[in-house]
Design goal:
Blueprint: E1 12-15, E2 24-26, E3 31-38, E4 42-44, E5 47-49, E6 52-60, E7 65-77, E8 80-93, E9 98-110, E10 115-117, E11 120-121, H1 131-139
Parallel strand pairs: 1-3, 2-4, 3-5, 3-6, 4-6, 5-7, 6-7, 7-8, 8-9, 9-10, 9-11
Length: about 150
């Protein structure tokens, strides 16, 4: 009865390019596999496996779990993140954040208590353009794969 008609899992692409300053929210308890492209702010309190690109601010709440690449103007991380962050302006890493991956940004603030394992390059004028994410993908011949979902 339940689960008998399970459909194949499909990737989802959410795009807000036609909406000015639209806000994308993934609430607590929600799980999304796919990519998000947004013109405005994005807030995630649930789980996302995929890439996220925003010309606005990206906020990962304390209950967030994201695995992929985030390219944004500004970001505030309070939850779990695994992958690559490319931020053109300011990255704020809150005390509850757990980051495993690489960071490319212009400016960064990291609160005491946050955990970070990876590489960080700051002061980059061209961060947030996707340049570093694209270079990482090319250098590994497309071998960048999500190892395990959060």
């Amino acid at each position: 009865m339940f689960g008998a008609n399970k459909e194949k899992e499909q990737d989802v692409v959410i795009s807000t390019t036609d909406l000015t300053n639209a806000e994308v929210r993934i609430g607590r308890g929600a799980h999304l596999k796919g990519n998000i492209e947004a013109q405005g702010p994005v807030r995630i309190d649930g789980k996302l496996v995929g890439d996220l690109s925003s010309k606005g601010k990206v906020v990962l709440g304390e209950t967030a779990g994201v695995e992929g690449t985030i390219i944004a103007q500004n970001a505030e991380i309070s939850g779990q993140f695994k992958g690559m962050l490319e931020i053109s302006e300011m990255l704020v890493i809150k005390a509850t954040a757990q980051i495993d991956g690489d960071i490319f940004c212009k400016k960064m603030v990291m609160e005491a208590g946050a955990t970070f394992m990876g590489n960080c390059r700051m002061g980059l004028e061209n961060a947030g353009t996707g340049q570093y994410a694209n270079a990482a993908t090319k250098s590994s011949n497309g071998a960048l794969k999500n190892q395990e979902a959060i």
